[in-house]
Design goal:
The chain is an alpha/beta fold. 48% of the residues lie in helices and 12% in strands. The protein has 2 domains: 246 residues, P-loop containing nucleotide triphosphate hydrolases (Rossmann fold, 3-Layer(aba) Sandwich); 64 residues, Histone, subunit A (Orthogonal Bundle). The strands form 2 sheets. It has a 6-stranded parallel sheet with strand order 5-4-6-3-7-8, with helices on both faces. Strands 1-2 form a two-stranded antiparallel ribbon. Strand 1 and strand 2 form a beta hairpin. The chain starts with a strand and ends with a helix.
């Protein structure tokens, strides 16, 4: 149910499974296994997989999987461009319309703000003075403690990288209201009704998976991927290179991080990021969210999801 002018009305939006969880928990593997049960169409809710050329470090679905299961939300912009949750919600409306009726759409990703924009709707951002905004952005460019400032200005700020922190600071300083306040008081309608499935594993298992994936990424050529992007003119401070893994490789290429410490630096940053994701999903998703332990094989988890979906009568 959702509220409309104070009265409860049925929510007639399409019910869509939304598979979330921290990085490296196994979301892609479970989605692939679900394709055995449903003729799937996947919408990726991952703020890093939107970038073209960032394949290894974002763990994009394989080309073979994408040939078997259509995906939307991948390779949308160049690494030098910014892509927001608002743009994701607008694009998602078009993607949902493109998905043929015989396919079951499912949203898969770990970017909470993208999921919120899709399900709860966008907030109507207040008009911001262009001159003051440009001046503030120049001041924020060199700031190293943006996240700390974002939390001071908005205690509800839950992370999301420099771009999200800068936007939170910008909204708070230029409007006098926090980003979380605007999100609570100026929301529009969402596009779908969510059936949330949150994957989780014990902390030791997640750390092991993060370590294994980091090793695989470096072996697959993560450093060469970043070198090739920068050789094509992508700046070291480009939005696409601000993500976990890419930041550390950029630091290594700039001589600020020794090669021997690169893997450890990526693993530690990924663990911190995963903790923030878990905190966000634990506190932001509704109480009726289906939480499943993904320690076992993906096929078993997918079979459990499919059985529970069938019981719901979809």
């Amino acid at each position: 149910m959702r509220s409309n002018g104070g009265s409860a009305v049925p929510d007639r939006r399409r019910v869509v499974p939304i598979l979330v969880g921290p990085t490296a928990v196994g979301k892609t593997a479970v989605a692939e296994a679900l394709a055995v049960h449903w003729p799937l169409a996947v919408i990726s809710a991952d703020s890093r997989q939107v970038y073209r050329g960032l394949d290894i470090g974002t763990a994009k679905p394989s080309a073979a999987l994408r040939r078997r299961v259509p995906h939307w939300g991948l390779d949308l912009v160049d690494p030098g461009e910014r892509y927001s949750a608002g743009r994701f919600a607008k694009d998602s409306a078009a993607w949902l319309a493109e998905i043929p009726p015989e396919r079951q759409p499912i949203v898969v990703g770990g970017t909470g703000f993208y999921v919120r924009a899709l399900v709860d709707g966008l907030f109507h951002e207040p008009p911001l003075d262009a001159t003051r905004r440009a001046r503030l952005r120049d001041l924020l460019k060199g700031a190293e403690d943006l996240a700390a400032w974002a939390v001071r200005l908005d205690p509800a700020f839950s992370g999301g990288g420099r771009q999200r922190a800068a936007r939170s600071v910008e909204i708070a300083l230029l409007t006098g209201r926090t980003l979380s306040w605007w999100q609570r008081h100026a929301a529009a309608a969402g596009l779908v009704t969510a059936w949330y499935v949150r994957l989780t594993v014990p902390r030791a298992v997640l750390r092991r998976r993060i370590s294994e994936r980091t090793t695989a990424m470096l072996t697959a050529g993560l450093i060469a991927e970043v070198e090739a992007l920068m050789a094509r003119g992508v700046r070291a401070d480009a939005p696409g290179l601000d993500g976990v893994g890419y930041r550390e490789v950029v630091a290594y290429l700039a001589g600020r991080l020794p090669r021997a410490g690169l893997q450890d630096a990526i693993e530690r940053a990924t663990v911190r990021y995963a903790k923030r994701q878990e905190t966000w999903f634990r506190h932001q998703l509704p109480a009726e969210t289906l939480t499943l332990d993904a320690t076992g094989d993906a096929a078993g988890v997918a079979a459990d999801i499919a059985a529970r979906w069938a019981v719901r009568g979809h």
